[in-house]
């Protein structure tokens, strides 16, 4: 009897819930446009998530305080870059590009994780992984160029797509680095990095205000903050961290390719966005490339 089966099944369930929440996150970000500014949304989202988690995490925070103090700067980087910068870039991108483009481009994250595992840990890449990598990059490029790859030759890229590239690099690096997180309870960890993300996003929110670009949340904006804090934030991040502990970053990262599927479905149903043929082709390339990469993994 394989004793790993329940562990793997739990990880798959956690990752399914995670990617559903993240697919909905892009839709929530689109609904926030004009109702709350993106950098203020990022800051309030993580502040809310940290405050909600704090009462539940308090006993573990007291127990893990020596680890928190010892690894303060690492934890600040986890929250500031992995959560704060990622979401600031994602929510800003939604002001310039479509929700479908955003969720498809997020499928490039597993390739960032593979690349970092190879460059830093020297995990060997097989031929099938390299072919899968090229397929995935082609799919993301197809989405970014709105089905016209020739635009890339002229660097005719949308500002939102450039911001999503930054977001992908931030979260891909965060996922890879989770293997180096301090030995502490997951509730302690998620609470600390939520607060760190809030602190890291504060200067950006202030800069937004100094530019006169701040939009104070109305009722819809406040609802988006609460939803983003609880579901794509606290619940999804906790599930993702837990699943990484169960099956590792490479295998968990593969599931991020489900984000464009859920995000595209939610965008069409809830926002009425149009699904074009190049979106379908891009999705198939991304999913096929990642599947091929996983099949050829050592």
Automatic annotation (TrEMBL):
Its main location: membrane. It is a multi-pass membrane protein. Residues 11-144, 159-292 form the EamA domain. It is found in: Membrane. It holds the Pfam family EamA. It comes from the Bacteria. InterPro entries: AA-Vitamin_Transporters, EamA_dom, EmrE-like. Keywords: Membrane, Transmembrane, Transmembrane helix. Belongs to the EamA transporter family. This is EamA domain-containing protein. It comes from Salinisphaera dokdonensis CL-ES53.
């Amino acid at each position: 009897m394989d004793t790993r089966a329940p562990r793997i099944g739990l990880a798959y369930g956690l990752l399914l819930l995670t990617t559903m929440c993240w697919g909905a996150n892009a839709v929530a970000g689109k609904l926030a446009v004009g109702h709350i500014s993106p950098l203020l949304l990022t800051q309030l989202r993580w502040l809310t998530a940290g405050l909600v988690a704090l009462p539940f995490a308090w006993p573990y925070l007291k127990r893990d305080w020596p680890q928190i103090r010892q690894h303060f700067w690492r934890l600040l980087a986890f929250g500031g870059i992995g959560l704060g910068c990622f979401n600031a870039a994602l929510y800003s991108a939604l002001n310039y590009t479509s929700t479908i483009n955003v969720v498809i481009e997020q499928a490039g994250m597993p390739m960032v994780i593979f690349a970092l595992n190879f460059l830093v840990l020297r995990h060997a890449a097989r031929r099938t992984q390299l072919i899968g990598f090229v397929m995935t990059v082609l799919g993301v490029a197809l989405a970014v160029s709105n089905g016209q790859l020739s635009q890339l030759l002229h660097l005719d890229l949308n500002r939102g797509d450039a911001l999503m590239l930054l977001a992908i690099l931030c979260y891909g690096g965060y996922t890879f680095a989770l293997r180096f997180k301090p030995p502490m309870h997951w509730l302690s960890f998620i609470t600390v990095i939520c607060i760190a993300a809030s602190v890291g996003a504060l200067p950006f929110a202030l800069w937004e205000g100094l530019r006169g670009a701040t939009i104070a949340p109305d009722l819809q904006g406040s609802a988006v903050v609460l939803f983003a804090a609880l579901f794509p934030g606290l619940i999804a991040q906790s599930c993702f961290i837990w699943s990484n502990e169960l099956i590792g970053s490479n295998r968990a990262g593969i599931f991020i390719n489900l984000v464009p599927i859920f995000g595209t479905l939610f965008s069409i149903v809830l926002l009425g966005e149009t699904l074009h043929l190049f979106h379908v082709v891009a999705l198939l390339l991304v999913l096929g490339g990642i599947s091929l990469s996983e099949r050829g993994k050592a």
